[in-house]
Amino acid sequence: MTNSSSDRSALVLFSGGQDSATCLAWALSRFERVETVGFSYGQRHAIELDSRAKLIDGMTALRTEWADRLGESHTLDIPTLGVISETALTRETAIEMGEDGLPNTFVPGRNLVFLTFAAALAYRRGITHIVGGMCETDYSGYPDCRDETIKALNGAINLGMARAFEIHTPLMWLDKADTWRLAEELGGKGLIDLIVEHSHTCYLGERGARHAWGYGCGECPACSLRARGWNSYISAESST
Length: 240
Fold this sequence. Notes:
By secondary structure, the chain is an alpha/beta fold. It is built from eight helices and seven strands, in the order βαβααβααβαβαββα.
């Protein structure tokens, strides 16, 4: 296996959602070689993984240099995470707030596991830059999305693997409207249209109803957050 030069390559956590699609465009704009990794963990909305191929095809068609930079796509199966999680993302149960103040869509340890597995893959591939869509601005209060958490994990991974990995979180301080704007800055209206049409956010895995912001049930927390961000983005665009 031929490894990419670590200083000029990145591995993007790519679920097929709006945030990870924007992060992929961000990485393709900055690194000479970009690989992606998605995780199958028994999620209720596993349909998101099917969105990745269309998003990748669309992005490579948008920018010639992106097509040249995009490398291998990986999918890691970690079903144990779903087995040990009693959450609305891994069980057919109603989405609601828990007694601990967190929504029951929180999958304990998910981002910790994702980033650790991504680092292990990056280690094998000779990559030191890892890109994730974690965000502390517009999120559901998940403790593993916080900047403090990511930085602490970054340090632990570096110590445990004796490598100088750098975890990038370009969306950390952006709200969803800002994320739409970033996508436009990176890939123009073409990228916006691509994300609307082919990315998947809905926690219930619904792809039936087509809204202005994309497909989804329109009612779950993920759809509501995406819709509010879209409406704010469009309102700002209309006023300029």
